[in-house]
Structures are given as structure tokens and as C-alpha cells.
Amino acid sequence: MNSEYLLTLNDLNNQSPEYIETLFALSNGHLGIRTSSVVKGKTTHGNPGTFINGFYDTHPIVYGEWAYGYAKNHQTIVKLPDIRSLIIEIDGEKSNETDWLVEQTDFQLNMKTGMLEERYEIETLQGKKFTLSLCSFLSYSHSEISIFQYTIEALNFSGEMMITKNIAFQESKANDEGTIDPRVASSKSKLGIKQLNNEWLEVRTEFSGQAILISQLMETTDGANEIGCQSVSKRVFVRENQAVILTNYVVLSKPLTTDNCHVIETEKNKLTEVRNSLKFDQLVEEQVQHFSEFWQASDIEITGDPILQKGIRFNVFHLYQNAGRDGLTNFAAKGLTGEGYEGHYFWDTEMYILPFFIYTQPKIAKQLLTYRVSILPKAQERAKELAQESGALFAWRTINGEEASAYYPAGTAQVHINADIAYAFQLYERVTGDHQFIAESGAEVIFETARFWLNYGSWIGAEFCINGVTGPDEYTALVNNNYYTNKMAQNNLSYAVTLAQRLNSVKEEEWSAWQEAAEGMKLPYDHEQQLIKQDDTFFEKAKWPFAETPKENYPLLLHYHPMIIYKHQVCKQADALLAEMLFPQDYSMEQIQRDYQFYEDVTTHDSSLSRSIFSILASRTKQLDKAYSYFMDTALMDLTDLQGNAKDGIHAANMGGSWLSIIYGFAGLTSAGQTIQIENHLPKEIEALAFKLTIHGTPVKVQMDQQELNVTLLESNELSIKQVTKNKVIIVIH
Ligand code: BGC
């Protein structure tokens, strides 16, 4: 077994239970389980929990001072109890009421198969010793099913054991420790628990009108099954040195948005059938096959640095695990690994995560985009609420499509999300060639977002301006003409014009107004310094006093009032540079170099979305040492707990960013029109790099080392390759 696919405790920077729970978390896009300890004693540590994508509760946001149009309700992903732990009873001693000696002797996540293997050596108060091994995984063929196989072996006794699997509902611990971190969940939900019959439990949220169904089945080697909901128990007889195997399947349904008993009954019956037909060996086989196909399409091979190799696989693995796949859910900022950011979906998906899926897993990319199509009606309502005659404004952060950002300067005002979404549809179309999806579903999103720009922006003199908005840099709020926003809106409008002409579905009068706005878009520039201006007034502010700011005062957002931050020239993350990264054909190398130097000096990287962009641009401007150093921070961010808060969940956008740093940075991938260009910028620390892309359904293999670049089409159809130089290749889409 290749150890570069195995995650063990030795790979981690700290051993705190909460951190381990996040890093070893399992997910399949529908379910996510934090991997807390399996035998919990009287004194439990950590923050165990299970999440269901899109299962959230809501409650009113209470404002000290309210204003018209503020977001009305919080949406918070529901944290369900841990579903992996066992209660073991021997001679009247219960594992959850005493503190037995529990030593973890093995703990490894096999990223090649998505299976987690653990082993514990346990000793009761009376000195009875046994081992407990557990194999856990979440099915990808039946996403509602989680599988746990426990193997118990008595070491110095024979006798009875009572094994109970109990799903114990308890309160969330988020923000309970006295620290107020705005990046963590801000509310707790009260759940209504109703036993429907002996086999099924209904768990209903208090306000969001959602319910899920839970059931479980316990199977032992003797062939007898126990079926239950909240709790199943099994009495087993263990003989010294003989293994007893218990297989437990827990079923957690998709969120149902109804209390109609017929709908619930139908779902229950469907899942009962699935549950009763499960076979462990078959599930294992399917899992191995599924992940083998995943790695086949999405692996990145790095020669010469095993730690980095594992770090990259770890990131790609979590990206794959945590994406919603049903067209109704998306990719939360922390995936399904923790409560950070309340399970909300942000622009992170479109700008940092989707490229990985578009280029290597296009079917999942389509599902993530379909989610945006599904919430378009909410975005249209929101635009109306903001006094826009027509068009759509997508929520800055949301689960159900409604705006959930209680702090509008760094939330709703980030209207660039509209153009980010449009950009992702455009990239999807270019790379997959799926024109049908765009015509049938995507185009309406593009037109409605274009309408928003035309309504919200204004012609001021000869320039089309977008005023009173916040760009990606959340340390600069409510500005006029944020460069990134305007550039992206311009692209959104132009793409809308292209689609309107191609599909002939919008009146010329309307699309020509979009065209004019795109052409007249203000893109702030300082001619004297020859620098792109982040916004109209960025250069009129005083520089942040970096030299006088102690290290412990970062991230600034936890130490300074927003007013103090906003009045300074300081960036939380890449902003104007992100625009240059996305549209390289529009900027000279000298321009990018100048801007890079300037913005690097004023950027704190307090957001995990920052470093990858700096790495990519450093690669493209041939500052390879810098590119590598930023890249290493992104590649190993959660494995080293660089941001110090991985306990609240993975930094999913950064994981996508590390993929971007390799593909857009080291492999210099850029795309425009009908071409995709690849250029070798491999830093000296990496001997060789290999990965695959899927372009217009065709697998493309890219290999590069310190000497040359090779691109091969695994099956040739719509693509051809032009080798421009030894280190530059253009893929042409016919
Ligand atoms: C970043 C945003 C990001 C959000 C969720 C914030 O810290 O500034 O750009 O969308 O985190 O990841």
C-alpha cells in the first residue's frame, strides 16, 4: 500500500481531539462525520458530530439597529450526534459511565478507498482486556448509508458483552468556550425527535420546516439482525482470542421539506428497502471501485517530496468527499467536517473549488452549478428587495438561497458573487463543451445576473460604475468601483451578450445595453504609479502600521474594530490580483509584476483564500521561490493547522486553491476562447509533476519535469495539441 495515500496521526501537527475529528472526517457529499473517539468514557473530549448537507435550522437575526433589507434569518447547519461510537457493557460496567483504559493503537485514513481504520486496546476497571477495531466509511452508491464494522477480540477472558449503538442527541459546543469567533457557528438548534415506529426516527428542525429520517441495523456473524432507530443493542459472547464482528449501518435520509405523512412514508419505505438489502462485502467492493475511478481522473503525482505528495492528496480527497452531488446542495466553506461558517455556501465554491471539479469531475461540477440554478428564484426576490427592477442577486452566504449574512458591509455588499457564479458557468461550458446545460439552465442565471449589473451600476459620465460595494478583500468595505467586481461584472455582461446572440433569446435592445456597459466599465488605474487601483480610493488611505502590529494581533479581524481596518490600506486577501490571475491575457507581465509587488506588501493573508492566488501569480511572473513558499502554506494548511482553526473544519477553498496553485501556477494553465494553454513553471523543489484533466470529455495527461512538458490526449476526439516550445503546449478545442 502506497503510504502517500494513508493519513495517520504522525502526519498531523497537533493531536487535539477536535483537530483530529476534522482532519479524519469522512463525507460523501450528503453526510459528514467528525471522527471522534469510538469508546467515550465518562469524561469526553472533543466536539463530535454528524452533518447532513443542506439540513439546517433557521431563526431570526436580532439586530441592535435594524435597517430595511437586512438579512432576516440565520441559517445554521444542524449538528447531529456522533453516529460511530459504541457503549460496551461488561459485568455491569458501562464504557460511557466509567473511564476505562482506552489506548488507540492504530488510526489511519486510507484516502485510496475513503475508509478509516482504527484499533483500540481497552481494559475495564476489573482488568478485562480486549481489542476493538473499526472500519468506517460512507457509501457513494447509497449516499444515505454509513457503514461501521466493529471487530472485538477478548484478550484475557471469555464472557458476555452488551454492545449498544446509541445516537445521543446533545447540544452544540460551538462558541461555548468563551471565545467569540465570528467564523464559527452562531446558533444552536432545538430538534424535535419523534419515533415513527420501532425502526425509524424523525428528526425535525424547529423553524426551517425540514426533517430527516434515521434508522439503523446491526448485523452479527451469527446472521441475526437488530433493527432500531435511536438505539440498537446486541448481546454477544466473546471467547478469548476469537474475533466477534458486528456490522452497523446507519441510515440518514436527505432533508425532507414537508410534514406530509405520505411523502415521509414513501421515503421511509424506499430507505427500508435499501437498508435491508445492504451487504458489507459488496459495499466495500463498490467503495474501492468508486475511489479508484476518482483517483484515476483526479490524482496529482508529485515526485521527490512525499510529504507534499500526501498533502496534495489529502486536499484533493477532502474536496472530492465534501461536494454536494444532488443539484440541491453545494459545498460549504468547511465542507461537512465542522460547524465553521455555519455550513454556508459562499463564492468559495465558484472561484476556488469548482475549477478542480470542472477540469477533473465535470459531473459533480454540473451538480454544484445546478444548485445555483435551483436558488435563482430566491436571488430574483432578493434583487427586488434591493429595489432592482429586474435581475437576480445571489446571497453572499446561504444554504437555502436566502441571504444569511448579518453584517452587510462584508456580506451582501460582496455582490461580486453574481459575477463569480457567471464565471463558473462560463468556465464549465468552455472546458466541458456542455452547451446544452448552459442553454437549458445556465443562460437564465447569466442573463439575470447581467440584468442586475445594469440596474445596480450607473453611467457616470462615459463610465459604467458599480458603487457602494465590497470586493473580495474584506478589510476594505463599501467602496466605489472595486476593480475585481467591475472586471468580473464586465465578463458577466460580455458572456451574457454572447449567449443572448447565440441562443437568440434576449431582445437586441437589452443585450446591446449589456454590451455598452461592459465596454464602458470603469477599471480604476493609477497612471502615475502605473498600478491597478483596488478601488477608487484605495490609494488615498494610509498604509496599515505593519511594523507596529504585534504578531499575535493577526488575524486583524479578531483584534481591531472594522472602522480601524477599513480606513487603512490593508488587504485581508488577494483582490485586484485575483482579477489578473483570472484574465492573464488582459495584462502585460510588467503590469502584473508591479501590482504583485505593491499588493503583496499590504496583504496579511488573514483569509485562507489568499496565498494560493499569490502562488499562482508568482509562478507566472517567474518568482518560483515565492511561488513554492506560498504554495507550501496552502498545500499543508490544515495538516499544519496554519490558520489555527482547523478544529472548526477544513479550509475547503484553500484546498481548491492548492489545486489551482499547481495547475494554474506550476503548470501555468490558462484558458480563453477555444484554447487551453499549459506552460511549465515547475519550481526546483519539485522534480516532476503529473496529473489528468478532462476536456470536452477527453482525458488529457500532463507530465512535466525540470526539462520539459508533455501533454497527451488519452483518447483523441475534439481536441488537438500544438507543442509551441519544449515547455509550452496549446490544447485547441475544435
Ligand atoms: C473570506 C471570504 C470567504 C469566507 C468563507 C472569509 O474569511 O474573507 O472570502 O468567502 O471566509 O470561506
UniProtKB/TrEMBL annotation:
The active site is at E474 (proton donor). Residues 11-251 form the Glycoside hydrolase family 65 N-terminal domain. GO terms for molecular function: carbohydrate binding; glycosyltransferase activity; hydrolase activity, hydrolyzing O-glycosyl compounds. Residues 313-659 form the Glycoside hydrolase family 65 central catalytic domain. InterPro entries: 6-hairpin_glycosidase_sf (IPR008928), 6hp_glycosidase-like_sf (IPR012341), Gal_mutarotase_sf_dom (IPR011013), GH65_N (IPR037018), Glyco_hydro_65_C (IPR005194), Glyco_hydro_65_M (IPR005195), Glyco_hydro_65_N (IPR005196), Malt_Pase/Glycosyl_Hdrlase (IPR017045). Substrate binds at W347, D348, K572, Q573. It comes from the Bacteria. Residues 674-722 form the Glycoside hydrolase family 65 C-terminal domain. One of its GO terms (biological process) is carbohydrate metabolic process. Keywords: Glycosyltransferase, Transferase. Belongs to the glycosyl hydrolase 65 family. This is Maltose phosphorylase. It comes from Enterococcus silesiacus.
